[in-house]
Amino acid sequence: MRDEERLVRRAQEYDREALSQLYRQHVGAIYRYIHLRVGREDLAEDLTADVFLKMLEGIESFDYRGVPFAAWLFRIAHGRVVDYFRRQAGKETVSLSEGFSAPGEGPAATTEAALARERLRQALGRLTEEQQQVIVLKFGEGLTNVEVGRLLGKSEGAVKSLQHRALASLRRLLEKDEGEK
Hints:
Shape: globular
Mean pLDDT: 85
Number of helices: 8
Radius of gyration: 18 Å
CATH superfamily of the largest domain: RNA polymerase sigma factor, region 2, helix turn helix motif
Structural class: mainly alpha
Number of strands: 0
């Protein structure tokens, strides 16, 4: 039995240390994944908390089949993001934190960086779900193609292909966006 599987089994018995260790191991990656999808820190924090609440509620039913535990958490995270956007369809929200500059940055630099992030987030949102996941895991999390493949249940070749198509689509979308200005 692998270390991760032992840890998950202990967590399924509600061992506090095991649950805490799973949280510490995965909270950063889940937060970054969600933040890249929703573009707001406050919302990413809330949705990340929801993911780990769902983990607690459903960990007893998790069946370890050799797929990394993180894959299950990323599926929960994806579901929380999709649910959020469904609920928000047609509503317009503004984050209070988006208007504040980082220390040492002028308003122009802050605005330009925020606009660039928003263009990238919108372009990412127009990719297929699989392409979005590959881009976020590869470049947001720094995972290898093999690691991404394990998380998504795909071969290394399929991940490379998805990455290539995703980057080509992103390039086209961003160039089109730039041309429309």
